[in-house]
Amino acid sequence: MPAIEARNLTKHYGSHAAVQDVSFRVEAGQTLVLLGPSGCGKTTLLRMLNRLVEPDSGAVLINGQDARSQPAERLRRGMGYVIQQVGLLPHYTVAENVAVVPRLLGHAPAIVAARTEELLARLHLPPERFAGQYPHQLSGGQQQRVGLARALAADPPIILLDEPFGALDPITRASIRREFRELPELRRKTMVLVTHDVTEAFELADQIMLLDAGRVQQLGPPRALLLRPANNFVRRFFAAEQLALQLRALRLEDVLAELQPAGEAHAISSIGSDTKPLSSTASIHDTLEQLSDSPTVVSGEPTVWVRVSETTARPLTHATLMAAFGRALRRLASEG
Amino acid sequence: MSILTELLAFWHAQADKLGQQTLQHIGLTAASLLAGVAVGVPLGLLLTRRPRLAPWVLGGAGVLQTIPSIALLGFLIPVLGIGPGPAILALFLYSLLPIVRNTLAGVQGVDAAVVDAARGLGLTDGQVLRRVELPLALPVLLAGIRTAAVINVGVATLAAYVAAGGLGEFIFGGIALNNPAMILAGAIPAAALALLFDGALAGLQHLSGRRLVWAGRALLLALPLLAGLYLLPRAASKLLAGFSPEFVGRADGVPGLRRLYGLNPASVVLAPALVYEAVRSGNVDLIDGYSTDGRIRAYDLRVLRDDRHAFPPYQAAPVVRRQTLAAHPELAPALAHLAGQLSDSVMTELNYRVDIRHETPRAVAHDFLRRRGLWRAPRSATGSTIRLGSKIFGEQYILAELYAALIKGYTNLGVEAKTGLGGTSICADALRTGAIDLYPEYTGTGLLVVLQPPAAVLDSLGPDPAAVLAYVRREYRRRYQLEWLAPLGFNNTYALLMRRQQAEQLGISSVSELSAYLR
């Protein structure tokens, strides 16, 4: 049973169709990214999931149950909600902001306090310094962290995020996104995230739904949208960042078969104890970073090692990696 | 400097009254504010949920705000009578607009993202309102209450016109008597109260966070307590008097009655125009009035005989600038046609037609002249223009119309009417400075309000009309170069009036009997 299921959602504002006949499923623990240009209906779609917007027709099912089968407030208390403007309550301290939902749910004060401290610490906001502060005393990045802590406070199984990093400067955004990705709290969560940032979508998504003018253009794993675009809109949408996205979307395991010459694997024990071979699930992007940052030098050329079995690894240089990458792209596109 | 000593002396002498009026003033303001908050805030909150109603409600409250306060009281008196009822309702209506508007603006001004996030977290509509919108709107809301409070402290001075008390009693008494110290005696505490309310609410408004919410609650608690000040017991007696502000202060008014008759009934102050209505409806039992007023007949009132002559004679006569008389010798003979023509009963009848039957003063005046054979069609005005003044009540309007018709019919002079000059002091000043050329005045008024002779002179003049006329004529000539022409005939003196039925029941026909009854 999917954690979230949308069935034929449609919403009109006057004569303007914001969302037209959109359906999708998100399995528990997965992340769906709603992607598209401004005004494509992605935010409206997200807000239908927690009933901040009621659809004209169609239904939302949460764990198989119609979202309308319980009061909207109770539904929302079971879903974290993070928005771009953060929306911290300005007259509440940081700790009180984080504690809003657990208090609504009637959790014991001592438990709420402990949970708040734990979350703040994990989000790099030492509680002894930040708990008593008011939102206006925080930087944008700190506010967004508090917003995230607030969404996680009651440990809801589902988190909805609307451009959560959109208002931050690029450096803060990258660092918070990394923290976000690595947060153990989020590993088990089912998430729906709205963004117009293609890189962000590829970094965080299990599935991407690309929308335009309220209609689904393509729904699938990131590499499917990239390698097998369903229509011209999808192709054009990714065109500008095509290469960067392909480097992120393809993993070493995709290109290993294309390596020429199909040289022998070496025993890991033989390649030097200071070198750690990469996993075959590493992206090409990460591998290239490793090649330029901390390569081992083999016969005068920067080289990284990729693990191909329990005990063996193969060497990769810029030349062999990029050649294999090119051949893999051609193969994957023709498999379409 | 002298006015300061006068003021301090006045406060010293009237300390108990000052205290009572101040408490009443605070009470009126707080009661109306409380009602304004109780109605305005929920109304404003309703508008945040039904924005389509907002233009209608705000428009309605705005229209209320534009009604002049005196007119609003005028509308309310037929419905609510006199007393604190119409005063508090009027003040409440004035406080609505700022409170409703600021409640709406305050809630609408709350960051939409904060409200959206709060809803998204699962707060119910009520919780969003109580925990998010209301606390965040509080500074703006308090600013609205603050505006309303300052407006109300000011407008509450008008409560003195409808027998609701407050600091307006001194102010209007002072205006009527041209006594700046008395005006200040009410105006300074009223201004201080406005500053106090303003400062206190400004202080609350600048608090932040939790303290602000507590302050809001404290305010809700404080308002009823302050409003309760109005209910403090006041002096009571067998009959309640309703006096106009001028009568309370002038020498031949309440002070004269106290001196000659030992009469000192519990009293309220109200607008001269309202005293008759108040006694008719039974809100009060005893009023001051004029012996030729048309309403004496219409409302079936009894004039109590002034058996010890507390009220000096009030013969009506035109007062004219000597310069004007010299420049236009034809003026005096034209005015003289009216001398001795109007007896008490004739004047009462003319007043009755204007005040009660609502005929225009002009129609009544022309009709009277026709019946007496004095009417002449207006000539074309070729000479200069005579500026004709009058005070702001029916009898003066009729007299002004009579003079205007005579001047136009018997001379070639033009007439410019400057009717509706607020009171004796305004008319007298206008005449002295040459803003008007003549107006009808009463000998007693000239004596007591304008000349203000020492007590020894007053005693020597006594109740003799001729002596009083001779004195004011002489003194006006000497001091102001103004001329009293021949009296019109009637004596419109002050009078104490009661409902005929009640007076008969209690067997009261003179002021002495009234005094004996009250003692």
UniProtKB/TrEMBL annotation, chain A:
It comes from the Bacteria. Keywords: ATP-binding, Nucleotide-binding, Transport. Residues 4-238 form the ABC transporter domain. GO terms for biological process: quaternary ammonium group transport. GO terms for molecular function: ATP binding; ATP hydrolysis activity. InterPro entries: AAA+_ATPase, ABC_transporter-like_ATP-bd, ABC_transporter-like_CS, P-loop_NTPase. It holds the Pfam family ABC_tran. The keyword Transport applies. Belongs to the ABC transporter superfamily. This is Osmoprotectant transport system ATP-binding protein. It comes from Hymenobacter actinosclerus.
UniProtKB/TrEMBL annotation, chain B:
Keywords: Membrane, Transmembrane, Transmembrane helix, Transport. It comes from the Bacteria. It is found in: Cell membrane. Pfam families: BPD_transp_1 (PF00528), OpuAC (PF04069). Its main location: membrane. The keyword rRNA processing does not apply. In the N-terminal section; belongs to the binding-protein-dependent transport system permease family. The keyword Membrane applies. It is a multi-pass membrane protein. The chain crosses the membrane at residues 25-46, 53-76, 82-100, 136-161, 181-202, 214-232. PROSITE patterns: ABC_TM1. It comes from Hymenobacter actinosclerus. InterPro entries: ABC_Gly_betaine_transp_sub-bd, ABC_transp_perm/SBD, MetI-like, MetI-like_sf. Residues 22-201 form the ABC transmembrane type-1 domain. One of its GO terms (biological process) is glycine betaine transport. One of its GO terms (molecular function) is transmembrane transporter activity. This is Osmoprotectant transport system permease protein. One of its GO terms (cellular component) is ATP-binding cassette (ABC) transporter complex.
